[in-house]
Amino acid sequence: MNQASGEGMDRDSLxxxxxxxxxxxxxxxxxxRTIVVLNTPGAVxxxxxxxxxxxxxxxxxxxRFGAALAAVLFGDAEPGGRLPLTFPRERAHLPGGxxxxxxxxxxxxxxxDGGIGYRAPGVRRHGAAVPFGFGLGYVQTSCxxxxxxxxxxxxxxxxxxxxxxxxxxxxxxxxxxxxxxAAPELAAVARVRVAAGRRVAAxxxxxxxxxxxxxxxxxxxxxxxxRHLLRVASHAEDPGFExxxxxxxxxxxxx
Length: 255
Known about the structure:
Layout: H1 20-30, E1 35-38, E2 54-57, H2 65-73, E3 87-88, H3 121-126, E4 128-130, E5 141-151, E6 154-163, E7 169-178, E8 185-194, E9 199-206, E10 212-215, E11 220-223, E12 226-233, E13 241-248, E14 251-253
Parallel strand pairs: 1-2
Antiparallel strand pairs: 3-4, 5-6, 6-9, 7-8, 7-12, 10-11, 12-13, 13-14
């Protein structure tokens, strides 16, 4: 499925153009193991998501697209990427999504909506069709937080990652920081390579910059003192493992 955009040609909708949604629905009705390859510049609406076997986001690749796509579809290569954006359930769930392109705002208040993408209030309230950071491969992995400690004013999270499959893979651990009840923000990412049937140890370090927010008094982002939350997860909507840390004068500590 494809969608065109470019310089001087922004998209006016998140829907796939033409009758592509109907095409996917009809093919999926005949074969529920249908794989949909999205050749799009960003998020699109997926009204048929629950009717197909899998969706592969290919973006706009280069001249070796055909060979790379075949390698992934036939299992010679694993689709190891993770979504760098959110696929919303509805356009209205995004900031400014309650009106069409014919309305041009005279002013923009970047603090009014509470965040964009996975931090947008509408996405947080309704959930995403496919959340930020989501991604599947051909192997199922598990990740456990073995212990959390503070060292030199930073937090170190020790992980145990297991590969329950028969081929090598990569587990992508994501750490989200939440300040004073605000929307969580991605603070760190760890790509952990793990061989088939093995269990490996890994670690992620998080500094006070994870809890930095804009401070008008100093004219820059600065760590916010207080007690905050860190969450180790596999994507933005994964409840994962959450724990509390304290930040004081740019140094982190754990109980």
